Amino acid sequence: MGRKVILATCSLNQWALDFDGNLERILRSKLLKNCWPIMHHNVRYNCRVMFLNRKILLIRPKMLLANYGNNREFRWFSPWNKLRHVEEYFLPRMIQDVTGEDTVPFGDCVLSTKDTCIGSEICAELWNSRSPHVDMGLDGVEIFTNSSASYHELRKADHRVNLVKSATTKSGGIYMFANQKGCDGDRLYYDGCAMVAINGDIVAQGTQFSLDEVEVVTASLDLEDVRSYRGEHCHPHVHKPCHRVKVDFSLSDCNGVYLPTHQPIEWQFHTPEEEISLGPACWLWDYLRRSGQAGFLLPLSGGVDSSSTACIVYSMCVLVCQAVRDGNSQVLEDVQRVVSDVSYTPVDPRELCGRVFTTCYMASENSSEGTRNRARDLAAQVGSSHMSLNIDIAVKAMLGIFSMVTGKWPQFSANGGSTRENLALQNVQARIRMILAYLFAQLNQWALGKPGGLLVLGSANVDESLTGYFTKYDCSSADINPIGGISKTDLKSFLQYCAEQFQLTALKSIMAAPPTAELEPLADGQVSQTDESDMGMTYSELSVIGRLRKISKCGPYSMFCKLIHTWREALSPLQVAAKVKHFFKMYSVNRHKMTTVTPSYHAESYGPDDNRFDLRPFLYNTRWSWQFRAIDDQMYSRGHILIFHFPQPAWEFSDEARP
């Protein structure tokens, strides 16, 4: 006879330090009820608590902490290093008053019911090479639970799903994966994906991107299927057995014979373009509704980057309208508060954009009609409240102050000026745009007779941050940046997706235009400055270099050794050496800019964010003498003669290029 059980896992949109809201969402999930900071012998542990009918059954501390990438668990917790060891934990008085217990088991233990055995993993333990589920499964644990805080990265979902499947493929069992969802007040977006698996198959799947604050995923499964699977695949366990905490309770009952069991499903993965459309949009919505502001303001240049940010805001409005249609009362309440209208019900994403999204094209004498028209057309199609202004009068006023003090008036290189003058004239335009963006963000609502202020959105991509190809404190300086962790290559694909998904035909001309800052004089009315010529390499090359620097931990020499093979069909070793040296020169000169970069949505595993993900020096020896000499020696040994002339774009030697 089968032993069928009904299991549930969940994804909750929790917010750091929002104790009332977090409790309310926990109660809505009907899975948990209490939480408190656990210290054992004056040491703080990250723990999972198992309880039943107001009684705590056991406390299981985390044994393998995450201390890489965005994870810094050792700041707050210590790992439990006593394998298979259990101690007595004295409960705080406030908990004693609730449960009526004085002490409970604390340590590496599992729960033994009348009909099965339940074990727990915590978050990153699933990713570890010594995952506890392996030994627990060999010792007879049939159900594994995992309460996780796994954040979104592009193309990461399949890795997470495969880990859950593999956890029960080799030795059978049921795996219940719960995950945080939403923006918890930082650069990360936790993307749900609660799931249930049995014997290597996914049988229940939660959503990856959603505005629902609470999502519960259930599955009815037969424990006998686990036992049959293990009867064929498992061998006797020889290690020290798990400590079992017995409980007088059954998950199954005798009436389960007529209960249908969930069957395997095929996981539906999003494409990277869909992930960019959905993840940052959900993150922006959480940030907006929790910030107390009335909307967003975006300097819209008509280029790929700012257009991508605009499309993400539009996607957010699409999600909000869909959630309201689906009856999400929390989203409706939030949007009414954002627009300061309790009678408002959003129906059309374009109309909602007009209420919460302001775009601004800031022209100068170096701007082309093409970018102005592209910005105007896209704004009209997404429905933003759009304005166009000219910054020349402010630029001239700023330069006039400088000239009055020094008696000199700087000139662009095209007009006979020096490299230093050329750069200064570009930077003053960029920084004035930042000042104007914040001025309009603070006062535009006031000028319209509406309450609240606007959040300024940035639009520098991950590759530009990596090389420092932006002006410090320009209009890339914003409150938040939804594309700061996304590569230019992915953004172009994303815009192609948006053009088709949202029928935004204005994006076609934007994608066809060469990326340009438009900070230098036009040549016969046409753009003479392009990003890739300024940087000395293509965006696709930067993506490769970025992954080698961060993920593969390559310095100049090891990167050169890899790229002479990777790029051998397109570039000679001489050309590879030139690009590697040029990149590290740019990177080291401009690394200091990462200390003030706008908080950005984390989406890429090679992001250069200095705040928590990519902790590196910001003062480098920019000559890289030993490393570059090693490259030269390798080239000489191959019979090449190295005489390099590096292009030195003005922005590379900027006034702010020195810490």
UniProtKB/TrEMBL annotation:
GO molecular function, one term: ATP binding
Stated name of the protein: Glutamine-dependent NAD(+) synthetase
Matching Gene3D superfamilies: Carbon-nitrogen hydrolase, HUPs
Pathway annotation from the record: Cofactor biosynthesis; NAD(+) biosynthesis; NAD(+) from deamido-NAD(+) (L-Gln route): step 1/1
Family: In the C-terminal section; belongs to the NAD synthetase family.
EC number(s) reported in the record: 6.3.5.1
Any matching Pfam family: NAD_synthase
Keywords attached to this entry: ATP-binding, Ligase, NAD, Nucleotide-binding
GO cellular component: cytoplasm
InterPro entries tied to this protein: C-N_Hydrolase, C-N_Hydrolase_sf, Gln-dep_NAD_synthase, NAD/GMP_synthase, NAD_synthase, Rossmann-like_a/b/a_fold
Positions of the CN hydrolase domain: 1-223
Residues that span the membrane, as ranges: none
The organism of origin for this protein: Esox lucius
Quaternary state and interactors: Homohexamer.
EC class: ligase
Gene Ontology annotations of biological process type: NAD+ biosynthetic process
Catalysed reaction, written as an equation: deamido-NAD(+) + L-glutamine + ATP + H2O = L-glutamate + AMP + diphosphate + NAD(+) + H(+)
